[in-house]
Amino acid sequence: MSWFGWWNLIYIVPGAFGVALAFVAAFGLDEGSSDTDGEPEVEGAISLIGVGRVPLLTWLTMLCIFYGFLGVAANLLLGVRDASNLGLIASAALASAVGSLVLTALFSRLIGRLFPSQESYAGSFASLVGQSGRVVLLISPTEGFAQVRDSFGNLQEVRYRSIEGSPLTKNQSIIVADVVVARSLCLVLATTTDPSDV
CATH code at 190? Predict the structure, then answer.
């Protein structure tokens, strides 16, 4: 069996591409999105094969790796040795295409359940509006730094100013009423919530 015959290269090249994509994702270059904005019918159809359940680069990586592995395995199992077995080559291609789509869909669903569809990294600064926190450092009676939980529950330290102009104290509970994105400043209101709840 020739590994470099075209009947094997049609699986080895996509498989190698999938491995390369896995390395790209492992080193943090994957900025892919799982969004599939479009017509509901199209979204439903592509959701069946796992698109939209994981980032697109992750989906493509799995598809290429499964296609490459299943294609070479099918060639080995069917005994494809050269280009004269066109019927066996077509059968192996069909089996690897269908099998890779099924496996990619199954693994996408599994990964989608294990990991959230949104990354729980720090959200945008503007998303802090309405979130609660507590004063940790006073610069002046009305300004300082506070720790605020974002919409993902991550604790962020932000600069604040009292929107009412009233003095705040260390460990005072606050709620973010507005933000000045250009200055990375939260405009806050004092609350009576227990600081240990924040």
Answer: 2.40.50.140
CA dihedral sign, ordered 85, 91, 97, 100: negative
- Domain containing 131 equals 125-197
Tell me, what DSSP letter sits at residue 130? T
What is the DSSP pairing of strand 185-190 with strand 173-180?
Answer: antiparallel
With respect to residue 1, please indicate whether it lies within any of the assigned structural domains. no
**Count: domains in the chain:** 2
Contacts of 187 (CB under 8 A, 6+ apart): 160, 161, 162, 163, 176, 177, 178, 179, 180
Residue-wise pLDDT for 107-146, tens only, equals 888 887 776 555 444 457 788 999 999 999 999 999 999 9
- For the full predicted model, state whether its pTM sits above 0.85: no
Residues 85, 41 share a domain: yes
When the pLDDT of each residue in the chain is averaged and rounded to a whole number, the result is 80
